[in-house]
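Aim 2 progress update. The chain analyzed this quarter is reproduced below.
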Amino acid sequence: MLKTVKYYGDRIFKNIKTFLKWVCIAIITGVVVGMFSIMFAFCITWVTEFRGNHGYIKFLLPLAGCFIVFMYKLFNYSNNKGTNLVLSTIHSETKLPFKMAPLIFVSTVITHMFGGSAGREGAALQLGGSIGSRIATVFKMDEQDQHVVIMCGMSAAFSALFGTPMAAAIFSMEVVSVGVMYYAALVPCVFSAIIASNFASTMGISPESFKIVSIPDMNTVNIVKIIIIAMACAAISVLFCMMLHGIGDLYRKYFENQYIRIIVAGIIIIGLTLLLGTDDYLGAGIPIIERAINGKAAPFSFLFKMLFTALTLEAGFKGGEIVPSFCIGAAFGCIAGHILGISPSLCAAIGMTALFCGVTNCPITSLLISFELFGYKGAAYFMIAVSVSYLLSGYYGLYHDQTIVYSKYKAMYVNKKTT
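Predicted structure tokens:
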């Protein structure tokens, strides 16, 4: 009896000790990563406003690209896999250098300032993961715990920038290995995401939120329309991934020199911007999202955003694919809503989450981010759209180092990288 009591007492003490360890690490990571993320958010906001007030600056995009290439070469950072490097580090395949943090910070700010079509959350994942890795090194943590702290840093950065702590906490655990979540990271990811989000809020970084203009009653006809939109979003997510990887292959085939590659890309982006007569497709695309949620989207705007983003990121400019994928999904959803005769505002929101799910293969995160961005009133529609998009998007994804552990179609182990 005494041995049993002692055994369970030791277990409880060990569990409490582990809990306190991860809470302390989460607080440190949430504050440190949150602080850098807040600086990053302020910089992105300032340069975006500056570009909006000084439109001529986009003509310097090729020179800005050359500076980014020079900076990476100066720091001798040739393993430039971006978010893929963070994922492969968690898989224990590579090491995550701390110099990734300042490089991605500065290069993403430069990309946004001069008009590259890129997001910020993808860069935040790299920033948070790199800082998290450094924190783990400082505390001399073992390899398994280092992976948890990297995920903790990713959650904190995502949460601080986008103001969605629920989605941020789960995303870093879900995105690495589809079908298997790293639940050991649940406590640190949750605490760091909440701390970073609250820290950012107190510093004036407002969480993203959108108001759906109208949500129709659920009936068979409306459900069928939402399924059609979700099916189309799955197809577009596959097309977007193929476009990203395909343009990257073309760049590397015809422009082996990185300087020439990024100059050519900058010139093409400027030329397309002048041809279309709008700067809408430069930057992250938040104005397009806002207009789409209000029921307005230009024809083919989702295709143009896909093209601009692929031209930008695959050439060597820095940023993320997440907000552009939101933009693509919102624009397409709005257009589809008008065609099918169902609330364009709701369909824009559906398009955002369905396309995000398709390119990231993260259905739980997609649901949570829809709730945090749009509220719970249309929850059933979001659940339908996310499930359909997840199934039909296949094994395509933004990140080559993401692993599909279990099949999307059968209860079977596949363990393959995304296409």
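DSSP finds 16 helices and three strands in the chain. The mean pLDDT is 90. These observations will guide the mutagenesis experiments scheduled for the next reporting period.
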